[in-house]
Structures are given as C-alpha cells and as structure tokens.
Design brief:
mainly alpha
C-alpha cells in the first residue's frame, strides 16, 4: 500500500508524462503542417532539449 508521499510522487510522475505527451502532440502537429520547430519544450516554455527540427 502506498503512503501519501508515494501517492503524490506517482501522481506527479503521471502528470508529467501526460504533459509531455500533450506537448509532443503540438510538436507533431506543427511538423505535419510544415512548420519549422526549433525547440520542443515541456511545461511553460523551459527548453527541455528533447528534440530539434532539422528543417
């Protein structure tokens, strides 16, 4: 059984993964529309350095 702290940690990890998937959707849609994507950021614009567009 998870403690309260463990539950909070799991919830934060799941929330982060959800945000990452959401932001990747923006990246993917922009690339499909032919836009140049210089940075892929997670959250409120802080550069995560996960992906760069070669175009």
């Amino acid at each position: 059984m998870l403690t309260i702290a463990g539950t909070v940690v799991v919830a934060l990890i799941l929330f982060g993964l959800t945000v990452a998937a959401h932001e990747f959707g923006h990246f993917w849609a922009a690339r499909k529309m032919g836009l140049v994507v210089e940075r892929f950021a997670i959250g409120f614009g802080r550069w995560a350095g996960l992906c760069s567009s070669p175009r």
